[in-house]
Amino acid sequence: MTLTVPGPHGDREVRISSPSRVLWPEAGITKRDLAEYLVTVGDAFVRANGDRPISLQRFPGGVDGEQFFSKNPPKGAPDYVRSVTVTYPSARSHPQLVIDEPAVAVWAAQMNTVVFHPWASRAEDSDHPDQLRIDLDPQPGTDFSDTVPIAHELRKVLDEAGLTTWIKTSGNRGLHVFAPIVPEYEFLDVRHAVIAAARELERRMPDRVTTAWWKEERGQRVFVDFNQANRDRTMAGAYSPRALAHASVSTPITWDELDTADPTTFTIRTVPERLASVGDPWESMGQSPASIAPLLAWWERDLSNGLGELPFPPDYPKMPGEPPRVQPSRAKKA
């Protein structure tokens, strides 16, 4: 079948092969349903995820099958699909896909893309993030309801640092808190700003919040995943579907909605109607970026008080000041 996809340069005709292929067996949602969803939410989707290097999480056999990540545009991409060269933590450079219009997202769905993972930086300046992102990740024994009061307190923390915050469901059990920032610092600095905010949050809610990288140290608390602020670390974008049985969507909400929000109700089938009735809560998100300089001052304060660097992801090169990448229980045995 062919879908007509409106966009800034007029309509595009995007071919969808095997439209009846079921991608979400439990929900009975097909490849055609996914493509039509992306057409319907196209403007909001591109506003949130466009003009950024983006990774595609693809599921050729549906969400219950094998998956892989695709970063550079595959061969045979339409002429309206572009890429930008980015530098990875290994110092290797490579072209990465950029979404500029809804037709590109629909074309990605044609390749069985389910989850879209945009960078925190713009395509034209990929080394300097323009978003500070904080992932509130419930650990075993906690759930979405536990993240709600934490998100409210995090909003206060970031407000004290001069940042305006926006929030969305992760599409799973957590919450993602975003703040638009001036793209004047590199990823490592933004990571340090996130760590500073996370530590302040942890000090205020020590029984509910943890910055412990090792799972054995987290307990039944919500983990503030500071490593999502690293270069080439991404989370599901706003309005991106998730590879979960009920076809959930990572959905922007207002702070007023947070206390009563039920993330299980935000799905491929329901989000288009929500967008049509309540609008896009993130429509004006990037209009007032702020500096992370106050958070970096907090980082320096914590350094002077003996709090140093935290562990990096295992695929990263060894970083200056990083503690040993050894699970604490194993280190004790050694």
Structure description:
- A hairpin with a 4-residue loop joins strand 3 (22-24) and strand 4.
- It is globular, with a radius of gyration of 20 Å.
- It has helices at 31-40, 42-49, 102-110, 144-160, 187-204, 271-278, 293-304, 328-333; strands at residues 2-5, 12-15, 22-24, 29-30, 54-58, 68-70, 82-87, 93-98, 113-118, 131-138, 166-169, 175-180, 209-210, 222-225, 252-253.
- It is built from 8 helices and 15 strands.
- It has a 6-stranded mixed sheet with strand order 13-14-10-12-11-15, with helices on one face. Strands 6-5-9 form a 3-stranded antiparallel sheet, with helices on one face. Strands 1-2 form a two-stranded antiparallel ribbon.
- Helix 1 (31-40) packs antiparallel against helix 3 (102-110), helix 4 packs across helix 5 and helix 5 (187-204) crosses helix 7.
- The chain is an alpha+beta fold and 334 residues long.
- The longest helix has 18 residues, at 187-204.
- 26% of the residues lie in helices and 19% in strands.
Rg computed from alpha carbons, rounded to a whole number of angstroms: 20 Å
Number of helices: 8
Oligomerization state: single chain
Low-confidence stretches: none
Query: How much of the residues is beta strand, in percent?
Result: 15-25%
How would you spell out the order of helices and strands?
EEEEHHEEEEHEEHEEHEEEHHH
- Main beta-sheet strand count, sense and barrel state: 6 strands, mixed
Strand order in the largest sheet? 13-14-10-12-11-15
Q: Please give the alpha-carbon distance between the first and last residues.
A: 61 Å
| Overall body shape | globular
Mean pLDDT: 96
Number of strands: 15
Q: What structural class do the secondary elements suggest?
A: alpha+beta
Helix content: 25-40%
